[in-house]
Write a structure and sequence with these properties.
Length: 354
């Protein structure tokens, strides 16, 4: 007997086998550490593929954590907690929760094809300003094709998955929201997974794995020790962003005796933060290094602007962040619910002791 699961598994293994072509490409600006990170990223990505598409079911959804201290993917933020689940546009879902310490909370629903491909659009974005909370922070949200009442929101026919996002000014001393999701449409009694169903899920895993390697490492050339102009994430841009975000990318390369002096300003916003990533869009080792700083922790200059210092060794200054011993990597700024487009940050390399 030929098992469809075996055929699908062979396809997935072939995708994994060829994954290093994306980060070994000589045309990409990735240093030796970046290539080592590329091999490590394969295991991060495989774990997420399993969690999101083998162990997750849009008919019986569960919230799956995207990232933690040791497992990181697709642009995780040191100040954030993200949960994922698959959904289907012909179902109805009830999300129950209780919000505590976050400065920003949202649910982004994504539309596209239900086969693991990069999502095509944000079909619905719901943030904390649109949700009615009880005095104790509790709430219920209904996602439905036909919203009619309080905290009911449109679930479009092409909906395939969603993310919850929470941002904190002091994440590791804060309490994240309690969250659960259930499908309100009754389903058949759960059965052991068939060969056909397992094969289908493995095929989705293979597609998700392969297409994620198309965007990690980032297929964009970033200026060295400088930033690109900030840009807003658009609903039809594709990928798992939120339309509440404005992004700004840069790249650093620093010797042991150098630091990067960054000057930035911020419009009125709910949150802004600056942090380092490796070339695979994974946050740096925030367990052992201070690799980011945000609006709630940064000390402003007299004119309201901010000066942030990035170096390998600690500096006796306000707003210092660490390279986490990376000579070269990505530096990234994001704003949430900004009232206007921020100015492009400025950066200059200096030597320690200047």
């Amino acid at each position: 007997m030929t098992y469809k699961s075996k055929i699908a598994l062979e396809k997935l293994l072939e995708v994994i086998k060829n994954a290093d072509k994306t980060f070994l490409d000589p045309d990409k600006t990735i240093d030796e550490q970046g290539r080592v990170d590329g091999y490590q990223h394969i295991f991060h990505l495989l774990r997420t593929s399993i969690d999101f598409y083998l162990f997750n079911d849009p008919l019986r959804p569960n919230f799956m954590l995207l990232a933690n201290d040791y497992h990181k993917l697709v642009g995780d933020n040191v100040d954030s907690v993200y949960y994922f689940t698959q959904v289907r546009g012909d179902q109805e879902y009830l999300i129950k929760g209780k919000r505590f310490d976050s400065v920003y909370f949202s649910i982004s629903i994504y539309g596209g094809l239900p086969n693991g491909e990069i999502v095509e659009r944000v079909s619905k974005n719901i943030n904390h300003t649109q949700i009615e909370f009880e005095e104790d922070g509790s709430f219920e949200i209904k996602l439905t094709p036909n919203p009619q009442g309080k905290n009911e929101f449109k679930l479009n026919s092409d909906a395939v998955n969603l993310f919850t996002r929470e941002y904190f000014f002091d994440r590791f001393n804060s309490r994240e929201s309690e969250l659960s999701i259930e499908n309100l449409i009754p389903q058949e009694e759960a059965k052991p997974m068939s060969d056909e169903e397992l094969a289908r899920r493995i095929e989705i895993m293979a597609t998700f794995f392969e297409q994620t390697t198309w965007i990690a490492p980032l297929p964009v050339e970033f200026p060295l020790n400088d930033f690109l102009p900030p840009f807003a994430f658009e609903a039809d841009q594709g990928g798992w962003g939120t339309i509440d975000n404005i992004y700004c990318f840069g790249r650093f390369r620093l010797e042991e005796n150098q630091y990067l002096k960054i000057h930035l300003t911020s419009p009125e916003c709910n949150y802004w933060g600056i942090q380092t990533w490796n070339f695979l869009m994974q946050s740096m080792d925030f367990k052992n290094y201070k690799v980011g700083i945000n609006k709630g922790a940064a000390k402003p200059n007299e004119d309201g602007s901010y000066t942030v210092y990035l170096s390998h060794r600690p500096m006796e200054v306000s707003n210092w962040i660490s390279t986490a011993k990376y000579k070269e990597a990505i530096i990234f700024v994001r704003w949430l619910l900004a009232e206007e487009m921020p100015d492009q940050p400025k950066a200059e390399v200096r030597e320690l002791g200047d």
